[in-house]
Amino acid sequence: MLTNTVFVTLLALCSGVEFQIQNAANFDIWVGIQANPGHPQLRDGGFDLPAGHKVSVQAPEKWAGRFWGRTGCNANTKHCQTGDCGNKLKCNGAGGTPPATLVEITLKGDQGLDFYDVSLVDGFNIVASIKPSGGQGDGSQYSCKKDACSNHTVINQCPEELKVKNGQGTVIACNSACNAFNTDQYCCRGAYGTPDKCKSSTWPVNYPKFFKDRCPDAYSYAYDDHKSTFTCKAETYVIKFG
Ligand SMILES: *[C@@H]1O[C@H](CO)[C@@H](O)[C@H](O)[C@H]1NC(C)=O
Questions:
Q1: Which residue CA neighbors atom 6 of ligand 1 most closely?
Q2: Where is the signal peptide (predicted)?
Q3: Which of 51, 100, 167, 229 has the highest CB neighbour number within 10 Å of its CB?
C-alpha cells in the first residue's frame, strides 16, 4: 500500500498535472473533487479552502474527474448548503448534491489532448473557471483558453421555479430543469435520450437558454452543443471558484 502511494506520488510529480485551486470569493469554500471510475481520488476528494487561498493538487497522468465548490459548510456537522457530498469534508469518491457548478477535465484523452469544460448540467451554485497555464494548443478559439462561468446574475436572476434557498430565504443556487422537474424530456432520457430528440429549443421552457445567455461557454444541459469543450496540452491548470 505504501509502495503504491509512493509510486502514484512519484508518477504525479514526474509526468502528472498540477491543479492550482483558488478561492477568489470572500467566503469559505470546501472544494470537492471526484475522480471518474478507475482513477484515484485526489486529496481524499475534498478540503477546506478559505477565502483568498490557493492550494496545489497533483494528479497522475491520464487522470479524469470533476471539481466543485461547496458553500455554506458547517465545520461541526460537515454539512454544506450547496454541493454537499454527504456531511463530510473529504468526499472520498462521493459526488456533490446538485445544484453545483462543475469543472470537468480529462487528461491525455483522444490524441493526447486534455479536454476540459465548465458544466451547469447539474445546475449552478458558484462562479467557476478553468485555465491552462501555458500549454500547447493550435491557436483556435477553444484551444488552451480559459473556460469560465463568471456571471453572478445566474443566482439573482434565476427563474423562480429553479431557485434554491437556504433556511433564511437567501437564494444559494440555481437548479437545472432536470433536477427541478425530473422529467424524461428535461433530463434527456427515455424517449428523449438522444441528441436529436433532446433539443432544449423544443422544451416547454428553454431553461438552458437562461444559463447559456449568462455563461455561453458552459454546458447547459446533457446534449448541449459540443463547442463548450476546450482542449489543451498543459502541465498546470488554474481552477478558480468565486
Ligand atoms: C450577465 O448576463 C446578462 C444576461 O445575458 C448580461 O446582460 C450581463 O451583461 C452579463 N454580465 C456579465 C458581467 O457578463
A1: 214
A2: 1-16
A3: 100
